[in-house]
C-alpha cells in the first residue's frame, strides 16, 4: 500500500529565494522533522548559466575571459592540464572528454571514484595516473604547482574560498563554480565554458533532461522516493534541493512529506527519527559501504519500504558525494531500474 504522496513535479523556474542555498550538506537547527503541514513551492534545480557568468564567446574561441564566482579569469588557450579541487568536477571533466591531471579526495572518498572507472573504461590508464593533490578544503599547493596546470577548477562551498582562490590563482588560471548538489547543472555549464565546450555540455543536459522526463512518464502511480545517507556519525535525509533530489525532480517523482523541504540540502535525523526516511522506495548510501550502519538501526525493520523490500543500497559516491553529470545519469538509471516499466 502506498504511503501518502505529495507530488513535487517542477512547474516554474527557480526563484531567487530558492536559489539562495549554501553549504555542502546542511541540517536544520534541531535535526527535527520539517513542518508536515506546509506546502512546498514549485521548485526547479537551476539549469542555466548563472546570471553574469561565463565568457559570452563561442566554443573554441581563445583567449577567453571567464566570469565566475570569484571574479574574472583569462584562459589563454584550450586547457590541456586541468587540476580539479572540488567533488564532482572530475566527473564533469570526464563527461566532456577531459581527464584531469590532478584531483583532491574528499570525505574519505577515493581519488577517482569507482563509478568513473566503470563509466569510462577506455580512460582507465589515464585515470590511474591522476595525481593526488590533497584535501579539497586545504589542497597541497606545491603538489598543484608541480603539475604545471593551465587551468584549475574549484567551487566556493564549504571552505575559505577567498583564501584558497587567491592561492590557486597565483599558480594558474582558476575558475570558481558555486558548488553543492543543488547547482550541479549550472556548474557544469560554467566549467564547460572555461574549457570551450559549453555547447557539448548543453547538449548533454538537454538529452539527460529529456530522458528523465520520458522515464517519469513510465512510472505507475505516484510512488514516493526517499534519499538517506549515513556518513560517520551523521544520518541524513535529503530534500528536493539536493543532488539526488534534483534527479527525482527531473523525472517528476514524488517525495515523502518529510523530505519536501527546499530551504536546505539535507536534515540530520537520529536513529529514533528514522521514520522520516520512510517512503514507497528508499535509496540509502553509507560512506565506506558498511550498510549495517543503517540496516542495523532498531527502527529499520519497522519501515514500510523495508517490509516491502523496497529499500535499495546505493553507491554513496554516486548518490551523495560527487554531484557530477555522470553520477546524475547513474542515479537516473537506478531509479528507472526500480520504478520504470
Tell me briefly what this model is.
Helix content is 31%, strand content 16%. The protein is of the alpha/beta class. It folds into two domains: 156 residues, Rossmann fold; 145 residues, 3-Layer(aba) Sandwich (Rossmann fold), CATH 3.40.50.
Strand content: 15-25%
CATH architecture annotation name of the largest domain: 3-Layer(aba) Sandwich
Q: What coarse outline follows from CA principal-axis ratios?
A: globular
Order of helices and strands: HEEEHEHHEHEHEHHEEHEEHHEHH
With helices defined by DSSP (H or I, 4 residues minimum), what is the helix count?
13
In helices, the fraction of residues equals: 25-40%
Identify the CATH homologous superfamily of the largest domain.
Answer: Nitrogenase molybdenum iron protein domain
Question: Within the CATH hierarchy, at the fold level, what is the topology of the largest domain?
Answer: Rossmann fold
Question: What is the mean predicted local confidence, pLDDT?
Answer: 88
CATH first level of the largest domain = Alpha Beta
Biggest sheet layout: 5 strands, parallel
Rg, Å, rounded? 20 Å
- Count of DSSP E strands? 12
Strand order of the largest sheet: 5-4-3-6-7
Distance between the termini: 19 Å
Give unreliable regions as ranges.
Answer: 1-41
